[in-house]
Every structure is written in structure tokens, then in C-alpha cells.
Amino acid sequence: MRQIITKRLAMLVLVLFGVTLITFFLSHVIPGDPARMMVGQRASEETLQEVRRQLGLDQPVWVQYFTYMKGLLAGDFGDSIRTQQPVINDLITFFPATIELALTAFVIAIVIGIPIGILSAVKKDTGWDHAGRFFSIAGISTPVFWSGLVGILLFYKVFNLLPSSGRIDLMVTPPPTITGLFLVDSLLTGNWAAFSNSLWHLILPACTLAFAQLATVTRQVRASMLEVLGQDYIRTALANGIHGPVLLFRYALRNALIPTITVVGLSFGSLLGGAVVTETIFGWPGMGKYVVESIAFLDFPAIMGFTFVISLGYVIINLLVDLTYYALDPQIKE
Amino acid sequence: MNPLLAVNGVSKEYTKGNHRFQAVSGVDFAITRGETFGLIGESGSGKSTLGKMVTGLEPPTSGTITYEGNSLWNGNRFNRLKPGEMQIVFQDPQSSLDPRMRVQAIITEPLLALPAAERKEKGSKERLLALITRVGLKPDHLNRYPHEFSGGQRQRIAIARALITDPSFVVLDEPTSALDVSVQANVLNLLQELKRERNLTYLFISHNMAVIRYMCDRMAVMQKGRIVEIGHVNDIFVNPVDSYTKTLLSSLPQLHEKKEDIHV
Amino acid sequence: MSGTTLKTESLPAARSAKTVNPFWYKIRRNPLTLLGLFLLLLILLLSIFAPLISPYEPTKINIPERFAQPSADHWFGTDEVGRDIFTRILYGARLSLGVGVAVVVGAGVIGTIIGAVSGYFGGRIDQLIMRLMDIILAFPALVLAMAIAATLGPNLQNAMLAIAIIKIPVYVRLARAETLALREKLFVKAAVTFGIPSWRIIVRHIIPNALSPVIIQVTLDIGDAILLVATLGFLGLGAQPPTPEWGAMISIGWKYLLDYWWYPTFPGLALFLASCGFNLIGDGIRDILDPKANRS
Amino acid sequence: MLLEIHNLSVEFESMQDRVKALQAVSFSIDEGEIVGIVGESGSGKSVTALSILGLLEKNAHISTGSISYKGKNLLSLSKKDWQSLRGKEIGMVFQEPMTALHPTMRIGDQLAEVIHRHRSISYKEAYRQAVASLAEVQINDPELVARKYPFELSGGMRQRVVIALAMSAPPDLLIADEPTTALDVTIQHEVLKLMQELAQKRGTSIMLITHDLGVVAQVCQRVVVMYAGEVVETGTTQEVLHSPCHPYTKALIGALPDLAEQGQPLLAIPGESPDLRNRPDGCVFAPRCSCSLPICREDHPVLEPAVSGSLTHQVSCWGRNQ
């Protein structure tokens, strides 16, 4: 077990190194010139050169990379061209909002997705199965930005049940920052007004995001459940008189969930991607909204910082997924 | 008489992570031209690994394998002395035929390794038709796919494929283990006839004592990577020396105590 | 409990069953796949015959008629410069379907070749390629596509390139996994013993036999690629106005959502239907072809 | 009679085909008896077994016949009654020991779960009995093995565990479908002996499905020979193996290399097994039979005494008296 962890950690470092390489060099093959963006079109050539020198853009690429890496290891992602703030500060500000949204969506997708998947598998080729599959396929086929818009149209404009944007009403004081997650912080401080208000704001964006992720969960649960139910050992169990819930949950579901964990873990990545769009639509003050605004500005330090942090999170989640997998499947032991 | 195939001190060791596994250790035997040599053992005895080393699928860790006096392995490189000279028929005809190819393409595939002139000569339509009829299939089977055939027919296709290059030496790796008894009889008969007609030499790998006894002239009994007994089939069956051979023989379920009892 | 008994017990019968193509039989039995097929055919026909169906031009500006409500003249209404939204959606279908198919098929072909070669030969190069793919996969797909499209410059070609790059690793992994399994198959081993050169084995045996999972993946990915193209368009990183691209249309239209609901709604609906069509078909084909999902 | 199968026919529906997997199969098994069901692939022997347990697939249906177990017809049982019958009254051992056990459940738990279900005792007590049952199938150090996962055991060990599972109730009838086919000969020998001893000790009847006549000769008292979903011959092991009457049985024995002289061709059966969708009107074996008569192609034979007056030895062949 320790060997696996060491090996995976080494991999993680290697992959992250690759990530920095790609983001860095991507931002240096660009036709756009960040220095020009910063000083504006009408600035003089001298000012431009001066800014270039300040940003280190006159150095050879590998020197720039080295400087960048040195900063990165010290937690310095450079300064944002748009906000003129250190990128790391910006990210720290916006990070909790994204996590709150993504985790909530993730939980919704799992809680709804697993039962639908099981139902689909057990009632294969019946109306239940078709309905369950259609619902989940509709989910991945719906662009997040569109389902968000339709949601706003219905629940805000027509029924006026839910807010259309933001994390919390302006009139409500946000809870003091402990974890940065409004729901958790307001619970911890017993601020019920803030809790219900932020929950109310969270529903629509989280459901929109979850709907897009649902299919990944249902599909995988259905497929692996079907596979497991077709295995010889299930037939053995049946022949030995095991049936009903014991067969379904103790014998089948457990094994069906092992591959599901991997796929669901990996889908967290596309959840983060979806969060970018969701935040834009719902004016959710997270990293996604931040990066979309940065893109319009060709704010490369911000884009790179965002990409790096998201990838870091993603890689760590994958590591956790792998470790869970090893822990659950006794057949992999080395 | 010089042996056709000689295996000298051959060992094979697999390493997987920190584990080492000795599949074959220090095996010697020789096969003379025209004989059928049987290799028998249970799963994990190393008999199939030996087959792989002879046919070029796995290099031995140590030892030499020579064919007509020439070494087959040069380090990890297989010296294909004469393409098509040595062929193999595998156990499972379900997996040994490419499901996406027609029978004609399957049978003529070994010719791809031959020089152009020889390829043309050996791949002529007449020869192909004669061969397919000889193994008991029909000419119109050539346009079909493997899944349209039964297990026995597929094994006939595999045999035709092995013979298209006119080999002198054929490795038969459990050729009938996946077949029903009545089909096995057909295939064994065919193999016997072909051997006589074409002057073939067989290396017959099997776990089935009865099949080895019926098919082979000489045999070697393998256990855990080693040869524990080698000799003429009749000697071994009548007078087994090694204790493992004795266990093998006594485990074989007997149809009748004495074979005279049968009145067919 | 599966087909095992049926498979072993009725082999001779199944062997000569030639009267009905099992593939079409199963497609016909699955209403969802049929629905997908119908959707796709509908969209395809509408986009092909767009000029015959609609009297309008997709990019012609007609200010007096701006923000017209959906009516008999303008089925889906008009946009902020008076273009007929239905017409733009029809022309947009050509673009979305074409781009989606092209990107995924391109990524599929390249990825399969890399995966098959890498998996067949193994060794250091294989390790290197796989690590590279790990790195690409270490980015959330949309985020990487955004980063690539943003750096290369916002236009349709770059968006396509970005999506192809994020899709390739999926095919490399898939083809490699298939190849590793195929390499152990006896018919590949047989070809090795015949002395057939490796490249020829890859072309003759490996790639044809690795194809069905790749095809399933391609069908499933086209729907996703169509959405990705639109998403990049929506974020301003894909096709630029006035190209009638669905995502770009929504990108402008969503600002008018609360007053002119039809503007972003109908392109989104088209996007949903197109993507859904491919996903339904992909899901159906997988259920039929994938032996894993097909046992019970 | 413990089990009596009468006139059982099973059809599989696939695509638009109808495959008649079983055609009017009848045989019986007495208390404490070991009966071998012999046949090649496609003969319907596994379908028969699955019919008895009610584990046939959805696309299969039983068109005629009855299966009576201890006097009650199994085919009229409710789903619930079936479930209480499986494992408790009738146990089953499958062919593949590699896949028959749950891969991520410890051996002890798999056994205890089943014992817990059948004996209405606490799980803890069931676990204790599970360990004891491992000892009974001659597994050394049963406590240790109970804590292991299937992948940590050899094929022979796994098959012993599968047998322990199937015998845990203990059932009155054990159906063993090719229980030793996947095992090496030396292990096959031990496993067969174990089954035989357990059956004797507990008075369990065994229905042993196999393609191997040698296995039949070793353990069975009676044999049922099946071909293309029909019973073609039945009798005591002695009768069927020593004086086979049906041409198919004769050919099956003659095809074995075990008894053949080297250099002499084996007695092979020409042709292919028949198309189960279109059964011939006459005898199913007639197209491949070396001694078929004109009547064989027109009329279907039925099981009749092989030698006049024989109660045990029966054969379905027009030429039985020739």
C-alpha cells in the first residue's frame, strides 16, 4: 500500500510538472502580446519595452519558465494584468465559491444518479429503464449554459421562486469566513438567515450543473450493475438461495460501485469545467467567472494560475479515487 | 540420425515486479524427423511456455534451441531460418482465427512472410482448393467468416493455415482440448493422415494422457517446469518410473478396467 | 445469468442464423435509439435543404423586423438585427454537425493509430506517450480547451483544434487497452509465428478488431463535441458573429433572455436535440456492441 | 423417487428464431443415487439443470412437461417457493471455479451468508459452522482459508469451497455441472472422490453433468445419454458403457482415444450436430447415423427397453433389435 502511494505521488509531481510546462509554453506561443494589452494600443514603444522588461518578457523563454516555476513553488502565480492583484490572492478569494457549487452539484448527481442507475439495470429494457436512460442522456445533451437560461426563465421570470444570480442577497450579511463555504460557515455561526438565503441561491446553479453530470453516474452504475448481475458468482449465489435485497446490495452493488468510483471521480473534472459556464450564467463569484473575464483580457497569469489550481485539484481527486479503489478491491494487492 | 529439433538446457524465468517465476528449468529433449513427440503436463507445468519458445513467441532465459543444427534464438531475436518451415496449431480455434477476416484470407496469411515467387506458387488457387478439400471443408467455405463454423471446422481451418506453407515441423498446442469428443476424433484422425501423407514431424502438447498415448511415439512428462520422465510412450504407460507419472496415470478415470470388455 | 447457457447450448443454430441482421433487430427493439436516429435524420434533412425550407438568408440584416415574436413568418422569431432565427439555426446545423463529426473522427483516427502502435510495441516510447496523455487528461477537458483556444486566438479553427487535442487521449487509451488485449489473442500470436512484420499485424489484425469500441466512443463523443464547440462559442472562444453558430447565437442572445425569451431558447433547443440525437444513438450502439453491457 | 422429470421441453426465443433446446426429456433420480448426464455441447444437459433450479433465462420457456421433486411439481411453484428451495433442497456446483465465487467477499462470509439463510441461526454461529464446513471438504487450516479471498486460492481449493457452499444446507439433491472440467486430472480425481464421500455420508443424490465418460465410469451408478436435447439412452453405468445400444453412445465410446490402438483411426461421427431450430421428423441422430433405416428418417423413436424385459436399460432407436 505504501509503495502504491509513493508511486502515485511521484506520478502526481510528474504530471503537475507537465501541466506547468504546457500552460507556460501555451501562453508563450501566443500571437497576442500581454504587454501590449497592459499598456494599451496608444502607448509608446519605450513604455512597451519598459513593461516587457518589468514582466520579464525580454528574457529567453527557459529563463522565464525558471522564474515562473520559482515563483510557483513559493505560491506566487504572478500578478493579474486585469485586477493588478497577485493572482494567488484572487484565486483564494474565488476558490471557496467554486468548491461550494461543485461539491453540492456532485452530491446531487450522486444521490440521484446511483438509484436511477440501479433501477435502470434491475428493470432493464422496461419503461423504467427507458425513462431513466432518457433522463440521464438528456442531461449530458443539454448545454449547461442553456439549461441555466431555461432555469432562470422558468424559476425566476415565470414562477419567481428562485434568484437568478449571486451567492447571497445584498441585504443579507454573509457569514464570517471560516471555510469560505457560505453554507458551512453560516451553520457554524448559527446564522440561519444567511444559511437559508445562500441555500436558496445555490439551488438553481447546483441543479443545473448536477443535471449535466448525472448521466456519467447513471450510465456507469447501470453498465457495471448489468455486468455484475451477469457474472457467474451471482448465479452461484442465486443457486444457493441468496435473493432479494441481500443479493442486490450485499453481492451485486458493492462490486458494481468499484468501477463507478473511478468514473465518477474522473467526472469531477468535467464538473469543474461545467462550473466555469454555470458561474458565468448565474453571476456566481467563483474562479470560473474570474477566468472567463480574464480570457477576454488575455490575462495570462490569471489564466495560467486558474488552470494550474484546477488541474492540481483534479489530480489530487484522482489520487484519492485510486486509493479508494485499492482499498475496496482486495484483488489488487502488491 | 541428427535430431530435427533439439532443446538443450532451456530455462525460462518470468519476472513480474519483485516476483520471479521459473516457468521452465533446464529442459533437454530432441525430436527426430518424422516422429510425433508428446509433451504432457498439468496447468503450470511449463509445456505451453516451451511451445512458445520453439515457435518464436518467447525467448528462453538460457539454453539453446536448434532446428536442423541452427540456433533458433540469438539473444532475444528469433532467427526465422526459413519462413513457413515450422507452423503451429493452437488450442482454441475460437480465438486463433481473426473474427474479421474471411477464411481465404486466414488460410493464406502465412504466405505473407514468404518471398514473392514462393508466395505466388504456394498460394495458387488449385493448391488452396486442394488443401481446403483435404482438411474436410468445401470450396465455398472460403468466403465465409470464422463465426459461421463449428469448433471442429474452425480447427480444420487452423490446420489448413498451418499447412499452406508446406512445413516440415508442426507444433500442436492442445489442438483438441476445446473440442467435443466426437469432433476430437475427427481432428486426431485428420492429423494422423496428414502426417503420413506429408511426412510431417509433430510436437504434440497436451494435458490429456489418452490423446498423447494414442498420437505419440515418444513423450516427455513435465511437472513444475522440469521434465520428470522421458521415453517411448508404451514404456512410460506400461512401466512408469517417476512417482508423478504414476499419479498422473492413476488419476486418469478409466472407462473400463479391462478393454476387452467392450462390445461395440 | 446471461447468454452463457444459450451461447453454449444453441451454437449450431446461432451459427447459421442469417435471416435477420441482429444489429438492426436490436436497434428496432430499442425505442430510445430509434428516437435518436429520427432526431438526427430530421436535423440532417433540415440542414441539407435549408435554402429550400427557409426564404430568408442567415446573415442578412433587416433592422425593421428586429426582435419579432415567433409567428407564422418567423417561426422562432428574429434577433437583434432582424435575422430569422429559424433560418440561422438551420444553417448553424450544417456547421455544428460538420464540425462535431470532423473533430471527433479526426481525433479518433489519430488517437487510435497512436494507441495501437504504442500498445503493440510497448517499452519506453509507450511509457512516454502514456505519460503525455496523462498530462493532457490531468486538465479538466473544457478548461484545457478554453486555455488552448484562448492562447491560439478565438476562432472556429482553433476551437476545433483545441477540442481535437482534448479528445485524442481518450482514443489513445481506448485503442491501447484494446491492443494490449488483442496482443494476447491467439490469432495475433499465430501471425507472429508466421513471421508477419509487426506493422502488418497492426494494420491487418489489431486496428480492425479494435474498431468497434472506438466507433462507439466516436458516436458518444460527437454529441459532446457539438456541445463543446457551442460552449467555446458561447464563451467567445469559438466561431465569431455573424457566423450562425448556435453557441455564438446564445452568447449574444442570453443578454436578451428576460425580454425576448425566444432568442437564446431556440438555438439552445437545437443544440440539445442534435447532441441528444448522437448520444441516444451512441448509447444504443454501445448497448448492442459492447459485450460487457450486453450480457444480461 | 426424489426427482422425476417427465416429457420436459424447453424453447429459447432469440431474434425471430425458436431454438428447441430440450425435446421431451424424461428421467428420474432416486434418493442417494449418483446419476450421470452425459452429452456433448448443445445436447441440453445444462439447460436441464437450470430448468430444475428455475434459473433459465428470460428468453427461455418450458413448453411441456413436469419436474417433480419429492412429489411436488416444481414448475407450478411461486417465485418465493423457488427461492426457499434453491440451495436448501437442491444445491448446484458450476463448472468454473474461477468465476463462481464472489471476488471481493471473504470465503468465510460467503459461506456464512448462505448458512445463515438456510439454518435460521445467528450470523456469528453461521460463520462458525462455515469454518467447520470448510474442514469437511478437506481444506487444511479452515480458519485461515475462511479469511481469504477467492483469488488467493487455487482452482481445486475454490471448487472445494463451491462444493461446501452447495452442500451447506445440506440439500437432498446436488446438481454438479461439469464440476471438474476446468481442473487438472490429479485434482479432478480428488474432487470427485470428495463429492462421492460427502454424498454418501449425507445421503445426498447427485446429478452429475459431464462430457467425460471416464468420470461417469468412476462415480456414477446410472447414466443418461443426451444428444441434441433428447435422451437417447439410459441405464446403469455398467449397461451403457459396456453394452451400449444406441449408435450415438457407441460412437461416443469409440471416439475416445483411451482404448484405441495406435495407428488405427478413431471411430468418428461424420457431419455436424443438428440445427435445433428445425428438428427432423424422424430420429435426430439419423442424418449422422451409420446404420440408419428408412423408418429412422420418418418417425421419431421413443425410449423402450434395450433388451426385452430390462427395467433399467432403455434406448430410443429403431434399430435397437438389429
3D structure, described in words:
- The complex is a heterotetramer of chains A (334), B (264), C (296) and D (322).
- Chain A is mostly helical and 334 residues long.
- Helices cover 75% and strands 0% of the residues of chain A.
- In chain A, helix 1 crosses helix 4, helix 8 (182-188) packs across helix 9 (192-229) and helix 12 packs antiparallel against helix 13.
- The relative contact order of chain A is 0.14.
- The model of chain A has no long low-confidence stretch (mean pLDDT 85).
- Chain C has helices at residues 4-9, 11-15, 22-29, 31-48, 50-53, 85-121, 123-137, 141-152, 156-183, 186-194, 198-234, 246-253, 262-289.
- Chain C is elongated, with a radius of gyration of 23 Å.
- With 296 residues, chain C is mainly α.
- By secondary structure, chain D is α/β, with parallel strands linked by helices.
- Chain D has a domain at 87-178 and 188-203: 3-Layer(aba) Sandwich (Rossmann fold).
- In chain D, 31% of the residues lie in helices and 23% in strands.
- Chain D has an eight-stranded mixed β-sheet with strand order 6-7-8-3-9-10-12-11, sandwiched between helices. A four-stranded antiparallel β-sheet of chain D has the order 2-1-4-5, covered by helices on one side.
- In chain D, a hairpin with a 2-residue loop joins strand 9 (222-227) and strand 10.
- The longest helix of chain D is centred in the middle third of the chain and has 18 residues, at 185-202.
- Chain D starts with a strand and ends in a 7-residue tail after the last strand.
- Chains A and C meet through helix 1, helix 6, helix 7, helix 9 and helix 10 of A and helix 7, helix 8, helix 11 and helix 13 of C.
- Chain D: Belongs to the ABC transporter superfamily.
- Chain D: Keywords: ATP-binding, Cell inner membrane, Cell membrane, Membrane, Nucleotide-binding, Translocase, Transport.
- Chain D: GO terms for molecular function: ATP binding; ATP hydrolysis activity.
- Chain D: It is a peripheral membrane protein.
User: What fraction of the residues of chain D are assigned to beta strands by DSSP?
Assistant: 15-25%
What is the CATH architecture annotation of the domain at 87-178 and 188-203 in chain D?
3-Layer(aba) Sandwich
Cα-based radius of gyration of chain C, to the nearest Å: 23 Å
CATH superfamily grouping of chain C:
MetI-like
CATH class placement of chain C: Mainly Alpha
What CATH architecture label of chain C applies?
A: Orthogonal Bundle
